[in-house]
Design goal:
It is a single chain. The chain is built from four helices and five strands; from the N terminus they run ββββαβααα. By secondary structure, the chain is an alpha+beta fold. The protein folds into two domains: 58 residues, no CATH class; 62 residues, no CATH class.
């Protein structure tokens, strides 16, 4: 008959404050190391900072109750979905989607004028709603509508 004896050494875990640690289905952010473990704060901001020992963390890892996602809350991970493009506009229906589409057209037209050197990002240089600006807005709006069909 086989007998298993647990190890006398407990692994010491190291987390980064930008990591996400999911413990038994709840998302946490490692807050800082503690004397015998780690302090975790809830990722949703609801709840208290809790301390878990390295032994408890090791038991969760062994059971598969802990999922470690390195860098989930790093600046690059947070910014990259925002840089994904305007595909999110297609998810918005009705009047809100139409307003977002018009706003997008104004922003793209302004950025186009800025790239051409016609305006700068100051209050004094905001373009009046003249014919050239309206033409650019309409061009972006028509292009956006044609791309959605």
């Amino acid at each position: 008959m086989l007998h298993f004896k647990p190890s006398n050494t407990t692994p010491v875990f190291r987390f980064d404050p930008t990591d996400e640690v999911i413990i038994q289905g709840k998302s946490y952010i490692p807050y800082r190391p503690a004397e015998n473990g780690y302090l975790f704060k809830p990722a949703d901001g609801i709840g208290f900072v809790v301390e878990h020992s390295h032994e408890t963390i090791a038991a969760w890892v062994a059971r598969g109750d802990l999922l470690h996602m390195p860098g989930k809350f790093s600046p690059e991970a947070v910014i990259s979905p925002q840089r994904a493009g305007t595909d999110g506009l297609s998810l918005v229906d009705g009047d809100a989607g139409e307003m977002l589409s018009i706003r997008r057209a104004f922003v793209l037209a302004f950025l186009d004028l800025e790239r051409d050197g016609a305006v700068q990002r100051t209050d004094d240089d905001l373009p009046p709603l003249g014919p050239s600006f309206i033409t650019r807005v309409c061009g972006f709006e028509i292009g956006a509508m044609a791309g959605s069909w």
